[in-house]
Structures are given as structure tokens and as C-alpha cells.
Amino acid sequence: MNEIHILLVEDDLKIINFLSLALKTSGYKLSVASSGKSGIMCFCTENPNIILLDLGMPDMDGIDIIKEIRKVSQIPILIISAREQEADKIEALDAGANDYMTKPFSTGELLARIRVMERFIERDTSFQSNPVVIVGDLKVDIERHRVFIEEEEIHFTQMEYKLLILLVKNRGKVITHSQIKKEVWGYSETGDAKSIRVCMASIRRKLEKDSINSRYIYTEIGVGYRFADS
Amino acid sequence: MKRIRNQLTNIMVVIFICTLSTIISIFLSTNGIGKENLLMIFLLGVLISTVITSGYLYVFMTSVASVFLFNYFFTEPLYTFEISDRQDILLMSFFLIVAFVCGTMSSKSRIQSRKAKQNEKIAQVMNEITESFLNLSGTETIVKNGIKYVQKLVNCGCRVELDSSQFENFRPIESEDFDEKKILNIYPIKGISNEIGTILLSGERVDSENYILFKTVMYQMALVLDREYMYIERERIKLAMESEHLKSALLRSISHDIRTPLTGIIGAGTIIRDNYDKISEEEVQKLAGDICEEASWLVTTVQNILDMTRITDGKLTVNTEYEAVDDLLMQAVSRINNCVGKERLHIKRPDEIILVKVDGKLFVQVLVNLIDNAIKHSGTDTMVWLLAKRENDNVIFEIADDGLGIDNNIIDTLFGSFVTMPAHKADKGRGTGLGLAICHAIIEAHLGTITAENRKDGGALFRISLPYKEDNINE
To answer: What structural domains and CATH numbers belong to chain B?
Structure first.
């Protein structure tokens, strides 16, 4: 893959200053837009690979920007916002954002998340041909419906498997509870908050036998889950 | 319908009395009694009719009918309506006058006594209404009592709405027979200073007599609601003062702690900007490191302050949702991961999957605060354990360490105010003392308990207990 082009949509000058310094020193090509409208304009004309988006734009709400972009593209969108309420995160993620970072954050964390986005782009192009996902010791064979840890097969119930596959297919991206409900349970009433929690905890216990330190599945309390990317 | 039946009964009575008087008179006249005395029988009939029937009309009817009957049966020529004797005319005229006067008088006295009875009844009911409101408290009880009386006395459907700015949590109450399509009238409930709410009546009509009673109910209700409002207002002010007090105490205790790191950040920043070429790279790095450290400490503090702003009415409001204990532990640990000393933390998760109803974010905050405290304040080479388990109807979280333990002087007031631990002088970490106060408020808002004690074999033990419902997995 060539040089990664990042579009930063942010209205605070100080943040732009330090982010552009950090991103340029890490070898990314950067465009900056300081309003929602010019952000969408830049997205259309400059064809970036990743968008970093601040939700609080002076001219339009970030959620609307996500929706506009999602109409035409599946480009990875990483939200950087000072809004820290779960409801805000869920709204942005449900609108189609890939990940969400709350200000303040460290540059290291930001770069790590951007690397996840990069892999997301690469995967997007190669996914169809290779339906076996390997993350650490975990191997998920999506085509044959089989999951292995260190070559040992692990068995899941149907719901657990569906949920796991949803997370694995979207690894690196936060999947909200409502997305899980919609994708795994359909719209039936059984997919309530409790069943999701129980199902998730049981998957996790099967994958991560002894340790509470999560290697594969990360919880965003009150928001959703994210599957590790590497 | 009822009136027609009433009229019919009265007419029947009139006919009956006239017939009876005639029969008795015929019987007496065959025994040779004179017609002046017979007229007395008819007069008696008229008097009886004033007592039994209601209204002048029937007395008048009885009198006239009696005269005609007397004329027909007993005056010469007999069995005609003609009168040949002048004396008879005089007799019958006097009869009519006497009958009318008697009838009117007795009828009047009857009406008066009926009115007196009615007034007494109204007075009694009013008294009952007043008494029933006297000892009531609670907006809903008062309104329900009012509705009960309106229904009973006025025979109308009724709905009470109160001003939402005064009675915040009050939802309109209505009687079962209230029908929105048949609204009769809307009455304001007037308090001392302003309108408290409205009463809506539905139904056919309200009699003037019942209207008085209805108004009594309304005034009484207004009076008692006013009293209730003042009570609520007083409580609200008290709560607001308490929570204001709590907030300001918190803010006072942290404002100092915010200034210190800010001074550090500004200082270091200024030095780097102004003396960049004079100081060594090493020093710049050290200063930048200090800035990062101070800033991240500020972040935690700001988070704590934000949590405090959620305190309303003297307590924290929580949005609870079922969360897996595994998730909570994991989230807490991942937050700790950035801290120094995380390798000293050991975790034991429960044997089963437990769901517990908590505000995930706040609860994790509690765990993080406690773990952070344990790591920072127990000493340098201590172990910290975090474990969760179920005990009967409770889910227990324990954070324990094998360090210095809690100073006995502060153990009782640990959660109460803003206690910082003076126990360990070597401790370089900065403490706001805010952590435990927040933990306590959060756990209380979850209807749980948090306790602190010293372990027998050394070290501190913090124990959180949350209520657990057995059926919450299989529900």
C-alpha cells in the first residue's frame, strides 16, 4: 500500500497543530479541514484513506457528517471528541463511525488506532479471497464455521458463533449493543441487553480461559465490544 | 321520568282521598248526620292531602274536587252540580277559603322543614369533607380523596391536573368514569398565591346544590395542596442546600489540587519555550515528561469533578443496565493498565457468569479508584487483589492489599468527608481524597454498601456489596 492519506476534520487550532506534527512525523500524508462542509468537500476531492473527525464542528454536527460520508463510502472514520457520554459514542458508532476516542488522548494511542484502520483498509481488499482470520493464537475459519486456539478446536453455541463472527469480521471496529442486537438476534425480543452480556461473557470465557486480561475482546462499558486486531 | 312518576302518585293520592272522604260522608249522611259536619270530613281530607302530597297544586286539586263532590252528592238538588240553597254557596265558599289557607300554611312549613334538613345535611357533608382532608399528606392521596368526594357528591367523572412546575412528579389523576369527550366544565384550583391546577368535570350536569359541595371539595383540596406544596418546597430547598454544600465542599477541596499541577505545566512549558537553546535536550525531555504526568493527573481529577456534577438532590443519579461482572473487572483492569505498579494487581473472576445491574461507567470508576488507591497507598512492594463473587443475594467485590492498612484514626470517617491518608509519609502520589467520597456516593446510588476494614494478616480490605437477583440470567 502506498502512502496513507489522512483527512483531519477539526476546528481547534491547538489540536490541529499537535496532531499534524504527530501524524506527519509518523509518515502520513495529511489534509486538514476546519469546518464540516469543507471536510466533506475535501473528502470528495482529495480521496483520503482515513478520516479523523471531531464531532463538534461549528457549521454542522459530526453525526451528520458521518451520515453524509457513509452514503457514498465505507472509508474508516475515527471519531475524536470531547463528548464522553455513552449515548454520544453510541450515536456516532451507530451512524457508521469505526472507532471513538475521547479527548484527551495520547498520541501513542491515536497512532495505534490509526494502524488498526490501516489494516482495516488492507483487509477490505483481501477479505473475500481469504476467509480464515488469524489473531494471535486464535484462528477463525469463517467458511467452515470452525474456531481454533493453538490448533485446539473450540465449540460455540449458534448465537455465540454468530456474535463472534460479527466481531471478527469487524475486528478493530467497535460494535455497539444495538448493532449486535440487529445483526445477531434480528429484531426479536430475545436479544435484550442481558442475553448479549451473557453470550459475550461466555464467548470470552471460552477464548480466554485463565486470564482476566483480555487479549481478543475489549469491552466498552455501556457502548459495545471491539475485537482485537492483532 | 322520576318527576312524571311522582306526579302520578300525587294524583292517585288526591283521587284516593277524595273518594274516601265521599264514601265516609255518604255513610254518615245515611245515618242522618248534617251536611255542615260532612264538610268537616272533606276539610280533613284536604288537610291530610297537604301532608301527604307535595305542592300547592294537589291541595288545590283536592279542595276543588271536594267542593264538586260535596255539591254533587249532598246539596239540594242532589246528584246535580246545581245549587238551590244560598247557604250552601256560602258554606262551600268558606270551605274553599279555609282549605286554601290551611293548605298553604302547612305546605309552607313543610318546605321550610325540608330546607332545614337539607342545610343540615350539607353542613354535615361539608364538615366531613373538611375533616377528611385534614390529616392527609402526599399530593396523590390528597387529589385522590378530592376525586372520591367529587364522584360521590356530584355524580360526575373528574380529572385533576396540577401545575407541573410546583408538583414535579405528579401525573394527572382521573376517576374511572371520566370521559374526555363529555367534558362539562373546567375549574381552576386556586391556591394562596397562584393557580395550582385544574379540575375537569365530565358528565351530564351539576345541580346548584351539588355545585356548592363541589366547590367545598375544591377549596379544601386547594388549601391542603397549598400546604403540601409549601412542604415540598421546603424539602426541596433543604435538599438543594445540602447538595450545594456537598458540591462546594468538594470543589474547595480540589481547586487547590488543580492549581498545583497547572502551575507545573505552565512553568515547564514556559521554560521550554523561552530557554529552548539554553537548556539541554535531557532537561527538555524531563520537563516534557513532567507536563505529561501533571496533565494526565488533571484528567483524572476533571473526570472526578464531572462525576460530581451528576450529583443532584443530594444523591447521584445512575443509569443502570445489566452488565457482566467479567466485563466490569476487565474494563477496570484495562484502565489500570496505564498506571505504574499494575503488575502487583491480581484478579480472580467469579466461577460463573454473573450479571449485575449497575451504571457501568460509574461502577468501573469505583473499582479503578479503589485499585488505584490500593496500589498507591499500600506501600511500594505490596500485592493487590481484586476479586468478585456471589454470596446469596449479593454480588461482592473485594479489593485487598497486604500493605500498611488503614489508619485507625480515619477508618470511621473514610467515606464521609474528604480524607487523604496521612499514614504513609513516603507516598509521593498526590491525593485529593475525593475518590472514596465518590465511591461511596456511587455505591449508595446503586443501593449497595461499601465498607473498609483492616485485614487480620495486614493490609486493607475494601468490600462492595451489590444486591443480586437470582432470576436475572434466565429471566
So the answer is: 2-119 (no CATH), 120-236 (3.30.450.40), 238-311 (1.10.287.130), 318-472 (3.30.565.10)
pLDDT value at residue B470: 59
Name which of A193, A198, A222 is nearest B353 (Cβ-Cβ): A198
Instruction: Work out the widest C-alpha separation in chain A, in whole angstroms.
Output: 54
The answer to whether residue A190 scores a pLDDT higher than 60 is: no
Q: Which helix (H) or strand (E) holds B346?
A: strand B345-348
Q: Alpha-carbon distance B133 to B136, whole Å?
A: 6
Å between A227 CA and nearest CA of chain B:
14
State the cell numbers at B368.
479503578
Could you give the percent of chain A with pLDDT greater than 70? 91
Please tell me whether residues A140 and A102 are part of one structural domain.
no
Q: Which three cell numbers stand for residue B59?
A: 291541595
- Domain with A72, as residue range(s), is 5-126
Calculate how close chain A gets to B388, using CA atoms only, in Å.
12
How many interchain CB pairs under 8 A, A with B? 59
The CA–CA distances, whole Å, from B438 to A167, B246, B304, B418 equal 35, 11, 8, 10
Partner-chain contact A197 B349, CB within 8 Å: no
List the single residue in B324, B330, B361 with the smallest CB-CB distance to A212: B330
3-state helix, strand, coil in chain B (%, to 5): 60, 15, 25
Q: Over the range B159-184, which residues count as b (16 or more CB within 10 Å of their CB) and which as e? A: bbbbbeebbeebeebbbeebeeeeeb
CB distance A201–B326 less than 8 Å? yes
Give B473's pLDDT tier (boundaries 50, 70, 90): very low
Helix (H) or strand (E) holding B105: helix B86-134
ipTM score assigned to the predicted complex: 0.75
CB atoms within 10 A of CB B254: 19
B408 or B16: which leads in pLDDT: B16
**Whether B360 and A221 lie within 8 Å, measured CB to CB:** yes
Domains in chain A, number:
2
Mutate to test the interface with B, among A195, A221, A226 (most CBs of B within 10 A): A221
Virtual CA dihedral for B336, B338, B340, B345, nearest 10 degrees? 30
User: What per-residue confidence (pLDDT) applies to B210?
Assistant: 78
Of the candidates B299, B328, B475, which has its C-beta nearest A194's C-beta? B475
Show which of A59, A94, A126 is a domain's final residue.
A126
Which segments of chain A are extended strands (E)?
Answer: 5-9, 29-33, 50-53, 77-81, 99-102, 132-135, 138-141, 146-149, 152-154, 174-176, 217-220, 224-227
- Taking the C-alpha atoms of residue B329 and residue B397, their distance in angstroms, rounded to an integer, is 9
pTM of the prediction? 0.58
